[in-house]
């Protein structure tokens, strides 16, 4: 398959966006994407009528194979599993292009409850708007089966339907949360979090972290205060963008220490995702998604 430099630049963010949503891993997606392009270059041109659809088919099936092989590893993961946060500059034009309904940490965590084929169908249909006929050809299922897969998938994802994706509104809420936390205003903090707010800490067995979810406003706030009290003097936090939403990015000196993302619903924080596993923390804070 002949792919010009212009086509490569056009399809690269598309394939990355599909792969990241499928796998929840930036590094693995980059590897799968490069393999997809490499194999595509080796295909005869006469066999391909629609390059975009064919590349998405190749990328999807490689992601499905990856998820199948990674299943045991994920099942043996120490503590809660989070996708790798995809950090972006807030003013990055690519952020505007993101379909935020399918990018948040909360949504990607829910994707872990889906089979590889269910993930493929919901993304190809809801995010990339392929027809059922095209999807059936991509994943080797009938159109009727694809429709059933999508219906079943949506039932599993009902939890995130009420997630607030209003960036500025969420940013304001998180800023108030930071201010209340720093000033020790417990009363204000309790107004911003739900009574049963849950914190999930992902250390992956690489660093010390809670291996079980922490539930209730009192326990979560006590946990956060405990962590904060043990941080070095050069520890600092910046409010940045991750997965199309405001995110706290924590640094120890110039080293990225952790990220904190939120599930916000009805003007309250219902879940907090603390990612500390160094293997999931990117070296840079910019990116581009379709």
Give the topology.
Elements: H1 5-23, H2 26-41, H3 51-75, E1 87-88, H4 93-96, H5 105-111, H6 116-127, H7 132-139, H8 143-156, H9 167-183, H10 186-192, E2 193-202, E3 214-215, H11 217-229, E4 235-242, E5 245-252, E6 255-265, E7 268-275
Parallel strand pairs: 2-7
Antiparallel strand pairs: 1-4, 2-3, 4-5, 5-6, 6-7
Helix pairs in contact: 1-2, 1-3, 2-3, 3-7, 6-8, 7-8, 9-10
Give me a quick take on this structure.
This protein has 290 residues and is α+β, with helices and mostly antiparallel strands. The chain is 49% helix and 17% strand.
Structure description:
The protein has 290 residues and is an alpha+beta fold. The protein folds into 2 domains: 114 residues, PhyR, sigma-like (SL) domain (Butyryl-CoA Dehydrogenase, subunit A, domain 3); 114 residues, Nuclear Transport Factor 2, Chain: A. It has 11 helices and 7 strands. The chain has a 7-stranded mixed β-sheet. A hairpin with a 2-residue loop joins strand 4 and strand 5. Helix 9 runs antiparallel to helix 10. The chain is elongated and about 65 Å long. The C terminus is likely disordered.
For this entry, give a set of tags:
coiled coil, Nuclear Transport Factor 2, Chain: A, Butyryl-CoA Dehydrogenase, subunit A, domain 3, alpha+beta, 11 helices, seven-stranded mixed β-sheet, 290 residues, DNA binding, NTF2-like_dom_sf
